[in-house]
Amino acid sequence: MGANWIVTAVVVVYLIAMLFIGWYSSTKINSNTDFMVAGRRLGPLLMAGTLAATEIGGGSSLGVVQNGMSGYGLSAAWYIITMGLAFVILSFVAPKFRAATVKTVPEYFRRRYGKESGLITAIIMLLPLVGLTAGQFIASSVILSTMLGLSYKVSVIIVAVVVTIYSIMGGLWSVTLTDFVQVFLIILGMLAAVPFALGYAGGWNAVVSNVPKETMNIFAKYDLFGIVSLVIMYVGTFSVGQEAVSRFYAAKNETAAKQGAWLAALINFIYAFIPTVLGIIVLALINMGKFSDSEFAAVGARYALPILAIRTMPAIICGLLFSGVISATMSSSDSDLLGAGSIFANDIYKIYIRPKASSNEVMNVTKITMIIVGVLSMFIALFNTQSIVSILMFCFTLRAAGSFFPYVLGHYWPKASKAGTIASLLCGTIVVVYLEHISKGYLFGFHFSQAIIPGLVFAFIGFIVFSIIFPPQNQTTELIHEDED
Predict the structure, then answer these.
(1) What are phi and psi of 147, to 5 degrees?
(2) pLDDT of the residue at 395
(3) DSSP notation for 63-131
């Protein structure tokens, strides 16, 4: 598909701007703490922007458009609304996360429960970050190639190079500033598409009269259990995922951490209905015969909106939409990349390989790890090795199931112990592996669409029981001191 040169120019300017922000951020870096947690100086606005951008990815933009047009209708918005509800819940524990003054989740486990727990969580959390980075590279590259008419492999190289360079230049400073720009691009790009799509359809009344009645039912595809399951999944993954929780560590104080979570929730609540409505409009246009599903058959239903945009929108709006959609996936991949580098350098290299490593040495190892993960993810994306991505993404569920309760309750319950933590990690892991790879979702005759929920239940039981049977010698929520650099 030939791309209009104005559309291409807008996207190129966007990519260059991301690199400029990376360079600018590099001038703010003086220590490892600056690099990993932005010097713990983020206010509520920057925190909210980077939190929202990190979690609003390809699934929350084009994926929701696809759901909106393929039977979910208005209920597709729950995919993003529940993210906002998760941020509201996390706002109550965010001050505790910030008060711990750690740089990574495995560091918390190490200082709270001992080196063994720190190493296990470092390994559990490092693997999914590689898979998430590769998955976002694939999503970004398919979007770039579809929208600009580039080859898929050229798109992979462009995305991997741009994201890796700006991420390693400024660490969390550059990731935060690029995310802040990207979250507005995501919202504005998708929002700008609405009036043009509506105009092409002949107005909202024409849209409503050309879609099935249940399309406007916000509970069409989600009942209360489905909504609660999504909230639980998001709370579990956001609270222990390094790519998300590092934002709480980077807040300038406990109040900023709480306010940032509330603002991120507000962004999600507002944004949720934009891709949903666009999906409904696309469905109406197909039913009217104004837009044929054969036009996006080659690339899949997820790309219906970009192809409609090329046909119906001014080049400048089209470029803005494309930049927004590309930034949705890039703003997730940069966080995954930084998370992987931070965990390896802070929790494996500094603890087991070079305990006396200086702040600058740890920061350099973080950057080298990010380059390695970036290159590895690029090759996985180049060959579109979905089987590898699926294996690594499986770890995404694993990390939340076993580590959630030791991490969250460890801030409040002095009797939480190393034995309880290891039991939680093992129980959560075993149940998730069993459900996803052995029983195909069945446990005790019940079917679970989300393996994380029974995983969390058994992890909680293991954590409480073993913490009571084998209590810690010192019953305190205080962490063992480590020098911060």
Answers:
(1) -80, -35
(2) 61
(3) HHHHHHHTT-GGGGGHHHHHHHHHHHHHTTTHHHHHHT--SSHHHHHHHHH-HHHHHHHHHHHHHHHHH
The sign one gets for the Cα dihedral 389, 394, 397, 398 is negative
- 182, two tokens: 């990207």
How far apart are the C-alpha atoms of 104 and 207, rounded to whole Å? 48
Tell which residue, 309, 305, 314, 329, has the closest CA to residue 15: 329
- Find out if CATH 1.20.1730.10 is the number for domain 5-384: yes
CA 467 – CA 470 distance, rounded (Å): 5
Distance CA 407, CA 400 (A): 10
**Whole-prediction pTM:** 0.89
Locate all alpha helices (DSSP H) within 345-451, ordered by sequence.
359-382, 386-410, 418-437
Q: How far apart are CA 88 and CA 56, in angstroms?
A: 16
* The pair of three-digit structure tokens given for residue 279, joined into one six-digit string: 């999906």
Q: Is 447 helix (H, G, I), strand (E, B) or coil?
A: strand
Between 468 and 123, residue with greater pLDDT:
468
Residue ranges of domains in the chain = 5-384
Residue entry with tokens 């595809």:
221
Question: Mean pLDDT for the chain?
Answer: 88
CA dihedral 206, 207, 209, 212 (to 10 degrees): 170
Who wins on pLDDT, 130 or 282? 282
The number of C-alpha atoms within 13 Å of 398 and in the hemisphere containing its C-beta is 24
Four-residue CA torsion sign, 263, 328, 301, 290: positive
Residues present in the chain in total: 485
Q: Pick left, alpha or beta for residue 223 (phi over 0 → left; psi -120 to 50 → alpha; otherwise beta).
A: beta
**Residue that is written with structure tokens 């939480």 in the block:** 416
Cα separation, 282 vs 303, whole angstroms: 11
What is the C-alpha to C-alpha distance for residues 80 and 353, in angstroms, rounded to an integer?
41
Could you tell me which of 110, 103, 171 has the C-alpha nearest to residue 337? 171
* Contact status, residue 376 vs residue 130, Cβ threshold 8 Å: yes
Specify the range with the lowest mean pLDDT, choosing from 280-294, 425-439, 467-481.
425-439
Provide the 8-state DSSP code for 378.
H
DSSP 442: E
Phi-psi map region of 54: left, alpha, beta (phi>0 left; psi -120 to 50 alpha): alpha
Report the SS3 class of residue 251: strand
The string of pLDDT tens digits covering residues 428-438 is 988 888 887 78
**Helix 224-240 crosses helix 242-250 at what angle (to 10 degrees)?**
60
- Cα separation of 435 and 454, whole Å? 9
Residues 173 and 401: their CA atoms lie apart, in Å, by 30
